[in-house]
Amino acid sequence: MIAAARSVSSEESTARTALRLGPRSIAERFRNLVLDTSPTMPAIERYTGVLYDPLDATAAGDRTRAWWSRHVVVQSAMFGPIGAGDLIPAYRLSHDARLGPLRLASHWPTASATALANRSAGLVLDLRSEGYRALGPVAGAVAPRVVSVDGAGRRKALNHWNKTAKGRLVSLLGRTAPTVTSMDDLAVWAAENGVVLEAVDGGWDLVAESLVPLPD
User: Fold this and answer.
1) pLDDT digits over 96-110, tens only?
2) Which of 41, 51, 82, 214 is the right S-S partner for 163, CB 3.0 to 4.6 Å?
């Protein structure tokens, strides 16, 4: 994967198409050329954006970071499943990158699924997006639907803001450091912390507003 990413990143023309880079982000291709010498940092700090910003990882205490390191795994397009505390360099690669004959959708699933199965025991809460979930299927994992509830009680699945809600959920889990072995345990923890997590039609709904009110 690293070799393929380095190859397409060596020229601006190939990097633009393979990595889906625009004029303002094209310089990010250089990250893939120095992966073996770049400084590293814990994955939980490396990633940014609406999913990770709610974690405020750099301000988290040792207890919170220890919980994340034990329980949180990130699906990386470059490195596969990595622990929250694993040290990684900066890179540019997403699940839908085009790396010539090497296809992420066929390269990662078997290896990722094996690694995740070896690491996990008991409840697995799958908060990955559909694209990243396909890179490492986990049999029996629970993928809650993030919903917004209006004044009439109607529920609507969220798109963009579901990432923020998931980030806030992982942040709260880390900062309360619960021992959870089943969805029933998680539902009890949620109720104790003001989070609405409910069994609905054979699945689970996570109400985003119960974490923090969504922006208008």
Assistant:
1) 999 989 999 999 999
2) 51
